[in-house]
Write a structure and sequence with these properties.
The protein is an alpha/beta fold and 323 residues long. Helices cover 32% and strands 14% of the residues.
Length: 323
């Protein structure tokens, strides 16, 4: 019997979105809550042959893989997993298979603009006020004619630029390696970092997290921003220095933030961001749609069946097949 673990299935939907019954002689266990630490993870997963993950919700360092003696296949969702030690998996003979990303770029763009609109038009604050019997408590900021500053213009940032133009916004962009030609391709003006933060009404982050991009927004950048400005982050939490952001929100140095990502996920129940009414919070659901999940889980099932048939597919660490 093949023992299969599905981890971090927060909504308990995995079994309904893939043909798991087509996997021969399998025992499937779903974990719908995060593990508390590596010891907890190792204790609960040590007997499994196959591990099915959801994006980067769970880290898979070498130290953990060494404590999973039966593990033969890791199925990740999407095209990569930054928190997986792939070299360690390969050295232990563990195959790593991936899925396509579905339409997760489009869905992340949707969440980005949902946060922009919610923060600019005070949707969440007005919603809370309405439930208290109030009516029209604040003035919103219209988007037409405003300046959107894009930090990064990759697959998602470029799509955000297209939507912003439909709203009649002016675009400017910056990243460490961006060229004027790239910015112009998306209808944006290339500016330096300080100019972008000082003159944008809304700043939206679209960078890959790395050592150069960690804390790309910190105390200095918040001091540059205008008091009515809004910061949006749908990329990765550590792009923004959390302490500096909380201080800026408490001091009303900026108008609001719209966040879909955090330093620690799930966001702790007593986290200070939960108490700030000028923080619009979304629980990392940029890719969390039925369509994306159906792609992830259906292709995960395909990967498991292919592996069990002796012909692994969508393999990230192809060297493991040569051993």
């Amino acid at each position: 019997m093949t023992r299969i673990a599905i981890t971090d299935d927060y909504q308990n939907v995995a079994l309904s979105l893939g043909d798991w019954k087509s996997i021969p002689d399998a025992k499937i266990t779903v974990f719908d809550k995060p593990f508390t630490d590596e010891n907890d993870t190792a204790a609960k997963l040590r007997d499994f042959d196959v591990l099915c993950t959801m994006r980067e919700r769970m880290a898979l360092p070498a130290s953990l893989l060494a404590r999973l003696p039966n593990l033969k296949l890791i199925c990740i969702t999407g095209g990569h997993h930054r928190l997986l030690d792939q070299a360690a998996a390969t050295s232990r003979g563990i195959v790593v298979s991936h899925t396509s990303s579905g339409n997760s770029v489009a869905t992340t763009v949707e969440i980005c603009f949902a946060l922009i609109l919610a923060a600019a038009r005070n949707i969440t604050r007005e919603d809370r006020a309405m439930r208290e019997g109030k009516w029209q408590t604040e003035l919103g900021m219209s988007l037409e004619g405003r300046t959107l500053g894009l930090v990064g213009l990759g697959r998602i940032g470029g799509r955000v630029a297209s939507v912003a133009r439909a709203f009649g916004m002016n675009l400017q962009a910056w990243s460490q390696n961006m060229t004027a030609e790239t910015a112009e391709k998306f209808g944006a003006n290339l500016v330096d970092k300080e100019t972008l933060f000082r003159t944008s009404d809304i700043v939206s982050l679209h960078l890959v997290l790395g050592e150069r991009s960690r804390d790309v927004v910190s105390t200095r950048e918040f001091a540059w921003m205008q008091p009515h400005a809004i910061l949006i982050n749908t990329s990765r939490g550590p792009l923004v220095n959390e302490a500096a952001m909380i201080a800026a929100l408490k001091a009303k140095a900026i108008a609001a933030v719209g966040l879909d990502v955090y330093d620690v996920e799930p966001l702790p129940a007593r986290h200070p961001l939960r108490d700030l009414d000028n923080a619009v919070l979304s629980p990392h659901q940029g890719f969390v749609t039925r369509e994306v999940y159906a792609t992830y889980y259906s292709e995960t099932v395909e990967n498991i069946r292919a592996f069990l048939a002796g012909a692994p597919k969508r393999v990230l660490n192809a060297d493991v097949l040569k051993a």
